[in-house]
Amino acid sequence: MIEFIKDLLRHIIKGNKLYYTWLSVLVLVITAGAIAYFRQLDEGLIVTNMRDQVSWGFYISNFTFFVGVAAAAVMLVIPSYIYHFKPIKEIVLFGEMIAVMAVIMCILLVVVDMGKPFHAWHIMMTPNFPSSLLVWDVIVLNGYLIINMSAVTYVLYRAAHGKEYKMSIMWPIVLLSIPWAFSIHTVTAFLYNGLSSRPFWNASIVAPRFIASALCSGPALMIIVFQIARKVSEVDISNEAIQKIAELIAYAMGLNLFLYAAEIFKEFYSHSIHLAPMDYLFFGLEKGGEHHNVLVPFTWIALFCNVTAFILFLMPKMRHKFTTMNLACVMILVGVYIEKGMGLIVPGFIPDTLGEIYDYLPSATELIVTAGIWAVGALIYTLMIKTAIPIYKGELSLIPKEQRRKIPAH
Amino acid sequence: MRRRDFIKSAAIGLGGLLIPADKSDASMWERFFQKYFREMTSEEKKTVAKKLEKDYQDKTGVAINVRTTDSQPGVKFGYGLDLSRCIGCRRCIYACVTENNLSRKPQVQYITVLEFKNGEKWVSDLEESRKYYNHELVPEPGHFYMPVQCQQCANPPCVKVCPTKATWREPDGIVAIDYDWCIGCRYCMAACPYGARKFNWAEPTVPPDQFNPNTHYLGNRPKAKGHVEKCTFCIQRTRENPGKYPACVEICPVGARKFGNLLDPESEVSRCIETKRVFRLKEELNTNPSFFYFFS
């Protein structure tokens, strides 16, 4: 075991200039984020631009987006285990590691949003269960983290012994992880959805749209991460697997856009007073002689990105070409990040329950702290693949050195 | 931020997975692990209140008295607001700030007075409201006013969503918060349809000579940054025997505000419900407020 840890450390510190630059940048951003967060702890959330009118902002927006990313693994788990689609089966592990990364980021994003993070343990003392959806969310997110961590650890543990994982052990984990991935979405959607005070969220389409858009953003992120991973390391990820994921994204985006259109139609055609948040997103609102429209450019960028990406994914020719496919993936990430982030959270508070319009954009502190959390995620993922790849390659093993040669490399 | 402050806050943060503040004596630990109010015995309540009094004395230099008076049997508080009398003078807001030891900087206010133009749409989403009106004299001709504060709902959405049960409805109908049990997630603020819940975005400040020393654990005791607070019908006044009216009722120069026991048919508020055509705010949300608006 000690031998293994030594080997592992050797593998982690082994890297070229690019790898070290990447690590230094991440550490730098994490440090900046930590400094900004300590200041926030000291002075209070007043250093953010959130106020009583818009009481959740950039942190919760990012949280919502990453809940979507976290379910990405399931997109791969279903075809690989259930239909035994071989090319994808080999990369499920990397998808599950994205889930681990995303859930850790989600937890951090909620913690930095809390006014009294040191008292978070109160939830365990007197959980308002089953009434509060926030308690549900704590349960499903932590559960999802445990499930994916066990899957990753088990597969790697077997691989470190030079063995394939046993399906008898993987099956229960897989069977649990599929509904669980849907549950983290549904519960997070219900968190907003259940509030009758916020007409923008209080629409039954919110949960289905959560799932549809998550099935776009998660896999899009995976396609990009996988290509980078195979470029900078010797991991094998087949083009076939990537193409299959791209095809799945096309269906998911189609569904997402349809649900979005249904929502837009309902709001604009019926034109009730509850149109205001949607109107704020697309055109801005007029009140007291002032025009409030800070989110308008973002909304249109998101719509443009999602529609263009959908068209690109729909055409097999474009989808099969890596340049256009990558472009479409980036557009989906931008589009869904806006739509399922700020575009979902902020309009819930606009106009506020007493009719006031408070234009919210994140403060510098919010941006830096969030960047720090992104960097934590990237660092975790980097270290995870840095561990997983040599294990897969048989370079890092729990088998004693003298016996190693007898067993064929994985 | 000065460098020393930075180092200090960095140290708090780093060492601070458990340490909540920059004091490190035994009483701080006791405060940190202070129990949930509803799980305290009446003995424990008294001990904790004593401790708080000492803390506040050290912090503010003012002798502050923290009571933990329980709700009285046979009492359900109700509030009446006569919209035809309200002139939008905002005296209620400032009487409330003083009575409840609300932060002066940044400003925290439990009451919001909304101004509407005659004939404009107003009731449901209040989207034509003006909150920051600034006239030489009120009422502004052609306008009317509607003060909004915690409606003390019988079916409160904030209580439903709170993850730690830090907010609940007391037997006398007051929706209370244990400030020390609140974790500052602000889910209740998203859930409240009346904008009644206020968050302490920074450390609240009250000039020491302006402290109201008569406080209640669930009411106007000094607050800290990072938790939510709201109107409690002046629990520190209304629960005492003899009780006093909430500060906003007492200050109102035109008698627009009524308060009393809903279970007593002869109380002022019961008489208003009986004799006026009352309505409640956002009735379509089924929150069932104990706060009644009417026109006399």
UniProtKB/TrEMBL annotation, chain A:
<feature type="transmembrane region" description="Helical">
    <location>
        <begin position="169"/>
        <end position="190"/>
    </location>
</feature>
<keyword id="KW-0812">Transmembrane</keyword>
<dbReference type="InterPro" id="IPR005614">
    <property type="entry name" value="NrfD-like"/>
</dbReference>
<feature type="transmembrane region" description="Helical">
    <location>
        <begin position="294"/>
        <end position="315"/>
    </location>
</feature>
<dbReference type="Pfam" id="PF03916">
    <property type="entry name" value="NrfD"/>
</dbReference>
<keyword id="KW-1003">Cell membrane</keyword>
<feature type="transmembrane region" description="Helical">
    <location>
        <begin position="327"/>
        <end position="347"/>
    </location>
</feature>
<feature type="transmembrane region" description="Helical">
    <location>
        <begin position="91"/>
        <end position="112"/>
    </location>
</feature>
<comment type="similarity">
    <text>Belongs to the NrfD family.</text>
</comment>
<protein>
    <submittedName>
        <fullName>Polysulfide reductase</fullName>
    </submittedName>
</protein>
<keyword id="KW-0472">Membrane</keyword>
<feature type="transmembrane region" description="Helical">
    <location>
        <begin position="20"/>
        <end position="38"/>
    </location>
</feature>
<feature type="transmembrane region" description="Helical">
    <location>
        <begin position="58"/>
        <end position="79"/>
    </location>
</feature>
<keyword id="KW-1133">Transmembrane helix</keyword>
<feature type="transmembrane region" description="Helical">
    <location>
        <begin position="132"/>
        <end position="157"/>
    </location>
</feature>
<feature type="transmembrane region" description="Helical">
    <location>
        <begin position="210"/>
        <end position="229"/>
    </location>
</feature>
<dbReference type="InterPro" id="IPR052049">
    <property type="entry name" value="Electron_transfer_protein"/>
</dbReference>
<feature type="transmembrane region" description="Helical">
    <location>
        <begin position="241"/>
        <end position="262"/>
    </location>
</feature>
<dbReference type="InterPro" id="IPR054823">
    <property type="entry name" value="DsrP-like"/>
</dbReference>
<feature type="transmembrane region" description="Helical">
    <location>
        <begin position="367"/>
        <end position="385"/>
    </location>
</feature>
TrEMBL record, chain B:
<keyword id="KW-0411">Iron-sulfur</keyword>
<keyword id="KW-0004">4Fe-4S</keyword>
<dbReference type="InterPro" id="IPR017900">
    <property type="entry name" value="4Fe4S_Fe_S_CS"/>
</dbReference>
<keyword id="KW-0479">Metal-binding</keyword>
<feature type="domain" description="4Fe-4S ferredoxin-type">
    <location>
        <begin position="77"/>
        <end position="107"/>
    </location>
</feature>
<dbReference type="InterPro" id="IPR050954">
    <property type="entry name" value="ET_IronSulfur_Cluster-Binding"/>
</dbReference>
<dbReference type="InterPro" id="IPR017896">
    <property type="entry name" value="4Fe4S_Fe-S-bd"/>
</dbReference>
<dbReference type="Pfam" id="PF13247">
    <property type="entry name" value="Fer4_11"/>
</dbReference>
<feature type="domain" description="4Fe-4S ferredoxin-type">
    <location>
        <begin position="173"/>
        <end position="202"/>
    </location>
</feature>
<protein>
    <submittedName>
        <fullName>4Fe-4S ferredoxin</fullName>
    </submittedName>
</protein>
<keyword id="KW-0408">Iron</keyword>
